[in-house]
Write a structure and sequence with these properties.
The complex is a heterodimer of chains A (617) and B (88). With 617 residues, chain A is of the alpha/beta class. Chain A contains 26 helices and twelve strands. Classes of the chains: A alpha/beta (617), B alpha+beta (88). Strand 12 of chain A pairs antiparallel with strand 4 of chain B.
Amino acid sequence: MNAVTTVPMVALVGNPNAGKTSLFNALTGARQKVGNYPGVTVERKVGAMQLPDGSNVEIVDLPGTYSLSPHSPDEQVTRDVLMGEHGIERAPDAIICVVDATNLRNHLRFVLELARLGRPMVVALNMIDLADRDGTKVDTARLSQLLGLPVVPTVAVRRRGLADLGQETATMLMREAVPAGPGADIRALQHEAQRIADAVTTLSGGAGAATRRIDNVALHPVFGPVILAVLLFIMFQAVFAWAEAPMAWIEDGIAALQAIAASVIPEGWVESMIVDGVLAGVGGVVVFLPQILILFAFILVLEQSGYMTRAAFLMDRLMAYVGLNGRAFIPLLSSFACAIPGIMATRSIEDPKDRLTTILIAPLMTCSARLPVYAVMIAAFIPDRQVGFANLQGLVLFGLYLFGIVGAMVAALVLRRTVTRGAGSGFMMEMPKYQWPVVRDLIIGLWQRGVVFMKRAGGIILASTILLWAFASYPVPPEGSDESPIEYSIAGRIGSALEVVFSPIGFNHEISMTMLPTLAAREVSVAALGTIYSLQADNEEALQQGLVERLRTAWPLPTALAFLAWVVFAPQCISTLAVVKRETNGWKWPLFMFAYLFALAYVMAGLTYWISRALIG
Amino acid sequence: MQIEDLKVGQTASVVKIRETGTHAAEALRLREMGFDEGIEIELLHRGLIGGCPIAFRVGSNVIALRKVASRLIEVNVIPAGVQAEAAE
């Protein structure tokens, strides 16, 4: 390898909660790339950092870890890269270790462990302002002397100390690594860290008094859950209410584009593909964005402020009943809006098995795309009358949500004892000090998630929508045929073939026909049924009204109930499967998810059909 | 005694961390989180149902654990009077 032309590589490491991500964002700004390490679901973040002499170095943000003894795939990557044993990532030329100045004793232990690797290293003494506020004085010069390493005080969120950090990094890059020393027993490291921390800090006043006061309320047995419930209520209001307007703009915009395309392109298959395939597909992807970004903005704020760990604390006991971890709560909750951001949010779950279980049950949470289907079915088949003090239609809707939740809990219990068996790492976590979220970190985080969604999910959604369009449009029935175009198409023929599979659970020809197009998105089944019954309507509302009337006369009640049960449990849209593929790095788990949800939905719909038939007669 | 026997607001010092056999990895994690023989801990919060999980201060850090994991740690209560003296 030619050492002259290779850009030096600097690894950024540190304990979780040391402010590593903030420092990485401050050092690189928007000049960062996010990807995955091949073969594992560990995020690889790399950026460019400018040194004082104007030259650039590559800086890799390694996953946070407490030590070089890995407990998770993330920590394994960090260890392997630092040891120079990672197959793909090269060994770093220098290390920047981020240390929380208010938590020196614990973080110095990791510094001491890293120092034994013999690689050139700089210590970033971060959050020095918080230490000041707590009345903790740290003697930086003495710390540097005792560690034998350069120490730079930084406040990443205010971009303080960055120039000095760059200077020291440049100096370190001119040094050569020395052979690694022998690893030390954790106790010896603990004691040495304690000794150094005691020698360099003078403590006065109560550390973390503000956090303590907040926690007395936020983790209070009564007020704690109430505050959590209020926060979640606001979050949901925001996701549904705030997203409504931008979603309408996007839909209008797409409709306008479709109109333009239809008028410009000569009628024919090209026009149909662009209008009904490409534009409808792009619209179907982009229309999710407002909800996803709002949801992620809330999640990022909860994470950055430190509240997320408190929410996990409050929910852990309940989640433990089904073998999950408190951290699974927020991702599952997000899935009520859409399973895609929910599954993406499972990244905060450390334990791989807990995370996989959470991903697998997330689609059972009733997403907003199922609401239009429920609305039509309930309006058509459930009488609008009072039962005690509640409305029967409302009760059924609530019941459908409840079914999904109970189904998810049972699925988690079963999965935890079968495919994702094995002791989880339990629930052990540090609860960081509360902090104001930083706008820069928020924007970078949102941007990265938006890009991931558009790139990874968008491509597959687009491709599958075009494919489904083709299936639903071709071949075209010959002139004078009394068969509807969708019956005659490939999708229709596959649907007819599927009838063999679905008739035992009471599904009719029309339902079987919607199975394939519905894979694009749940709500498509309303439009698909409309097409199949050849309903002509100018707008969505009129279509729903017409469909309600039609279904009421066309479907027996047991079939309708079975279809509702199917929608609760059935495998979700292709976008969900695409995101599961990305998050689990392969086709194995999305295929498993499809299979188990299909089986579950089939059995539940079948039971509903046969039981209700026996009861109604 | 064990951490779950402490009352909210009580302080104790860690006497021993059990790290034999199947508990080795968990015990190592506890050490990485800052537990160590001789360190002072203070019970801060308990979960609503069954008092689990438990949150406590370890040195200058706040850690949350489930009861099961906390049973690896043996502690001795520091009586309130002793603490006040030490602070002076």
